[in-house]
Amino acid sequence: MALAPGTRLGPYKVTALLGAGGMGEVYKARDTKLDRDVALKILPDAFALDGDRIARFRREAQVLASLNHPNIAAIYGFEDNGSTHALVLELVEGPTLADRIATGPIPFDEALPIARQIAEALESAHEQGIIHRDLKPANIKLRDDGTVKVLDFGLAKAMEPASGLSPAPPEAETITTPAQMTATGVILGTAAYMSPEQAKGRPADKRSDIWAFGCVLYEILTGRHAFAGDDVADTLASVLKGQPDWTALPLPMPSSIHRLLRRCLEKDRKRRLSDMADARLDIDDVLNGSQAGFDTSQSAAGTVAPQHHVERLWAAVAIAMGVGLIATITAWRPWRQAPATPSQRLSVELGTNGTLLPTDGEPLAISPDGGMLAFVTGGSGEGQLQLRRFADLQALGLVAGNRSGANGPFFSPDGQWIGFFSSLDRRLKKISIAGGSAVPICDCFSSPSRGASWGDDGYIVFSPDPQRGPLFRVSSAGGTPERISTLGEREVAHRWPQVLPGAKTVLFTSVEVSSGLDGAKIVAQSLPSGPSRVVLRDAYYGRYLRSGHLVYAQEGSIFAVPFNLERLEITGQAIPIVQGVRTFTRSAASWFDVSETGTLVYVPGQQTANEAPMAWLDRKGVSTPLQSMPPSDWGWPQFAPTGDRLAFSKSDNGFTHVWIYEWASGSMTRLTAEPSDDTTAIWSPDGHSVVFSSSRGDKESLNLYWKSADASGDAGRLTKSGNTQRAGSWHPSGKYVAFYELASSGRQSAIMILPMEKNGPSWKAGTPTPFLGQDRILALNPTFSPDGRWLAYESNETGETEVFVRPFPGPGGRYQVSMSGGSMPVWSRTRNELVFQTGRRLMVASYKTEGNSFHVDPPHPWSNTMIGPRPGRRFFDLHPDGDRLVVNALDTLSTTVPTDKVVLVTNLFDELRRVAVSSRKN
User: Fold this and answer.
1) Rounded to an integer, what distance in angstroms lies between the CA atom of residue 386 and that of residue 382?
2) Burial of 831 (C-beta count, 10 Å sphere; 0-12/13-18/19+)
3) Span 493-520, mean pLDDT?
4) Which among 333, 483, 590, 865 is least buried, having the fewest CB atoms inside 10 angstroms?
5) Which is it for strands 583-584 and 607-608: parallel, antiparallel or unpaired?
6) CA-CA distance, 588 to 539, in Å (whole number)?
7) Backbone angles phi, psi at 539, to 5 degrees
8) CA nearest 139: which of 199, 204, 192?
9) How far is it, in rounded angstroms, from Cα 385 to Cα 374?
10) pLDDT of residue 50
């Protein structure tokens, strides 16, 4: 079924037809959610009408989506639209290998790097039990930067019908084997690259891919098929009985490559090469210069070199002699370096029953010597710090108790300590790798943080706020943090610091706008508070390596570029080293780390945007999307007193604005439009005005403003402070607004009461007075009860963040509502209930009042439905009817890739030295 440009499949808008074949039609499309180009593979009609095959394909696609390798084109998803079913694939620009071969054989020195990348892709897939089954030059793309991408991995198996009935014969070169005629075990493939067992209709295994690899390598070197015929029958006969023309191979050629080809193309698969790793190692030996032997005749094939090869033969002899002489001299040199060791990719289980903490921060860190991995498991707000020694089978829990609230682990330079942030008591802490008690280092206002780095000088540089702000520094022995960076004109945050060797410079990511990666750049600054310079633009999460490279994240991939540590500048061309790494657009985080010894650890995944839908959630856990409300990067919802409108904050075009949504009609109105961050809007009791927090007066802080809810008139300023203030709740009388203010030191936040007075159509504010606050205590998110007699809030005043209630205006004691952590309290307006968040679960606590006493029952879950984890923002509100919530309906931090495994890449430094020139001075 042809799709016209402009056709939409879910969020994907078709822009052009790229090609068609037996596997379906392929279109270029635009992902309107993530604003990127993708490829849509539309499944054939005969396939789409078979429900069993669709279900089977969907299961297979989930397995294939786990493939994350720089040489494998990624599968992003599966889209259904009526009878149209499509795979959403990574769009790989550039010609196919078939297009390149059509111009003639590929020179040997160019062919081998291509073959190596194909081999590495197959090796990685085979390690996960996935077989390609249809490898051919048309399924291999060559990007302009030299990267090879293998397409359509495993789709042949996914295309097989579960019923065993054969599909209709395809129109293109991809065919069914003779098994099609018997209607058993249908296998898809292309005749010229089919292994003998596939041609006989027998099951394929990884050795079938190895055969196809041999066919592809032969074709790269010769420009012709290894097995050819006038039609499909002739080609299959050649596969079963014939031999390649070995005399067509170029001369000279290393004997190991000739031997590799013969082993790949053994018709008896028991004699065939059994593992792609062996093929990759043979190629690596030649690329690294350790294989000096050359074939200069065709004697291995039982033939004599033709006359026209005589001149090439003599040239080969001369080359071989020269290579041998150079190798001898090189081996003799006393200053000779050890040969580079090829890097290896290993999938490693974390060794724990938990999964990585669902956060857009840093859940893992590798030790300087590369022998240990610190990571955090559990739900949001319940992080458990674990340590896995790679020599052991299991991980060790380091912090005692069921909940530690740990996040953002990082190692000390000697690898004996692990620093981390605790969301329970909002402190930066450290703990010995041997275990024991965690040692507090300093208070930290918010959690999770946005990175920390332990320098050689014993100081820790960290970013304490998940949303905005500069960097701070504190002694690892403890003390008061000092601010060390200053935000530029358009900057809103400095994040993900790395103290460079010598502790004289810190590398960090600068975020210019609240939407995350637009305008992100990597900056180097002299310590403690010296000048700074931009190192790299349109990049984030930079890490300096002792190999003399800078690695960084960009669009879900890790890149490496030569970097001069003395001059703090890029000195070469960037190259991609890993694709498909979990990254986050709002926080600019990327889940990878590199040890001092050159071991890279990362979590496979994709770049995750912040868009999420709004939905109704009832007490039974039934979720219903709000109409005309597309997914967006939203937060802090609050219903108007009448329940017909919803105020919320939404990030768009680099800033956050306040919007009003009328859910009955589905209409939205933007309330604020200044080039600033406007957030946490709260309604006046009559529903005619809102108070909100805004950075329009000072980009490093938020103060309170008010505006008419119908968007008329200008916003009026209510407070002026160099501290950050967030609106919390408007008293039912209209006479007070409760908000919290964060002290500039970050050591405490106080709940403040702002007197309010109606002045005609406007509001006038008095002088704020403290309601609750003391040194080292964080009190946040205050909200008045419907009768105005009580104030609920969250605080760490007992050592962990819990929800409390106090009488307003006082005096009186506090009443604890949550029992296992709690935040973001919201009162019901129709029932004696408080709703709050614990981790990713919404909880309800019933209460009753007697005079000045407040009695609360043990809390219980609102439903079994989890909400998306977004630390630092509220993503729910209770409708005035008390029976339904508006919630974040999507966990945007989850992916199809399991989070109980990581990938290790060993010998990264050798790999980088091989493919890029280091600028490091020896």
Assistant:
1) 13
2) middle
3) 86
4) 333
5) parallel
6) 9
7) -150, 160
8) 192
9) 7
10) 63
Inter-axis angle of helices 276-287 and 206-222, nearest 10: 30
Listed in sequence order, the residues at least 6 apart from 535 whose beta carbon sits closer than 8 Å to its beta carbon are 507, 521, 522, 523, 524, 542, 550, 563, 568, 569, 570
At which residue do the structure tokens 């004289």 appear? 504
Q: How far apart are CA 229 and CA 238, in angstroms?
A: 7
pLDDT for 161: 43
Distance set, CA 197 to CA 175, 186, 270, 452 (Å): 15, 13, 11, 55
pLDDT digits (tens, 9 = 90+) for 53-102: 676 567 667 767 778 888 998 888 888 776 788 888 889 988 999 999 99
Q: What is the mean pLDDT of the chain?
A: 82
Q: Which of 180-189, 278-287, 454-463 has the highest mean pLDDT?
A: 454-463
Q: Which is more confidently placed, 682 or 191?
A: 682
Kindly tell me if the per-residue pLDDT of 509 is higher than 50. yes
Query: Is the CB of residue 717 less than 8 Å from the CB of residue 733?
Result: no
For 355-609+904-915, CATH number out of 3.90.1150.10, 3.10.129.10, 2.120.10.30, 2.40.110.10 equals 2.120.10.30
Q: Considering only CA atoms, which of 116, 112, 155, 113 is closest in space to residue 135? A: 155
Share of the chain above pLDDT 90, in %: 43
Contact by Cβ (8 Å): 222, 261: no
Distances (CA, A) of 790 to 639, 643, 787, 827: 20, 22, 8, 10
Q: What is the helix (H) or strand (E) element at residue 126, kind and residue range?
A: helix 108-127
H/E stretch holding 328: helix 310-332
Q: Hey, is 272 helix, strand or coil?
A: coil
Q: Is the pLDDT of residue 169 over 60?
A: no
CATH superfamily, with its number, for domain 1-91? Phosphorylase Kinase; domain 1 (3.30.200.20)
Q: How far apart are CA 566 and CA 563, in angstroms?
A: 9
Q: Distance (Å, rounded) from C-alpha 425 to C-alpha 124? A: 43
Strand partners, 410: 419
Q: Which CATH architecture group holds 614-888?
A: 6 Propeller (2.120)
At 128-148, the pLDDT tens digits run 888 888 899 988 999 988 899
- 139 phi and psi angles, rounded to 5 deg: -100, 20
CA 894/CA 272 separation, integer angstroms:
41
Q: Where are the domains of the chain?
A: 1-91, 97-332, 355-609+904-915, 614-888
Bridge partners, residue 78, by sequence? 87
Beta strand ranges found along 273-360 (DSSP E): 294-295, 345-349
Q: How far apart are CA 209 and CA 435, in angstroms?
A: 47
Where are the strands (E) in 565-666, listed by range?
569-570, 575-579, 583-584, 589-590, 592-594, 600-602, 607-608, 614-618, 623-625, 633-639, 645-652, 655-662
Q: What is the percent of the chain where pLDDT is above 70? A: 81
Q: What are the distances in angstroms from CA 110 to CA 145, 193, 291, 606, 801?
A: 13, 22, 17, 30, 60
Quick one: fold of 97-332? Transferase(Phosphotransferase); domain 1 (1.10.510)
Specify the pairing of strand 188-190 against strand 253-254.
unpaired
- Asked if the model's pLDDT at residue 542 lies above 70, the reply is yes
